[in-house]
Protein: Aspartate-semialdehyde dehydrogenase
Organism: Laribacter hongkongensis
Amino acid sequence: MSQARLALLGATGAVGRALLQAMAELALPMASLRVFASAASAGEGVALGRRELDIEDTAEFVPADFDLVFHAASEAVDPVAAAALAAGCRVIDLGGRIHGAEHVHAPLASMLAVLLRGLPADVDHLTVTAMLPVVAAGRHGVDELAQQTMALFNQKSYEREVFDRQVAFNLIPQVGKIGPDGCSDSERALQESLGLLLPQQAGLSVTVVQAPVFFGHSLSVEIELREAASATVLAKALADAGMEWTDMNPEGMVATPMDVLGQDRLLASRLRVHGRRISLWLTGDGLRMMAREAVRHAG
């Protein structure tokens, strides 16, 4: 791996920048790294730790120049990543769209994988309500929330480009197009990911909501287990799996997205147990978790 020639597609997006940060923090070994984005960004720089890398136009990408490609770009760049895979490159696809590429869990699925791994009994039914930060829509999503917030405070008009509805000071219970089954694109994608993590006969209900927060993914989770477990047993099992409880002592407080920015912690709070049914709240920097998983996978 230390002699691998790496490429990053989508270097200017939120996922691409999270990947660069993870590469630097985890000291990913490499022979070289070149970063690509749209023609509009070509010639600009992005940081890899203390180094600055020059962004190249994706149109200039040549698969033969690379051994490993991180695909963190939009669907428009999928043909480029697919061509790299066909040419023999190893491709890690963070969007999960390229058939035959290596995939990692998306942010919400990454968080839920930790939870499911730690449960002391199998799941009969899982109900998830996920609160997405605007960074899930990329840098432009962050910009739109900031612009709308300022415009509303100053009683000025604003334009919508990323979100179909006002996102500032609002909740949007639809992320992506609604299909014939009543599920949105984001809900269907999460269901598919969770289907690989759950027992075959387990029931699953998912709702994804666009929240007016910049960073940090949050989840309200209800689980029906096949066997009852006490709150004490559950709390310890989930802590052993990597979750950190924030309100298990009198001085504790509930977990919020602000508590996890730029950190690897998966915070949990509000544990309630009623026989085989448990409820809890999770929050984590899902984008950071996904990026670090991709870098570890590459190594």
Notes: The two ends are 7 Å apart (CA to CA).
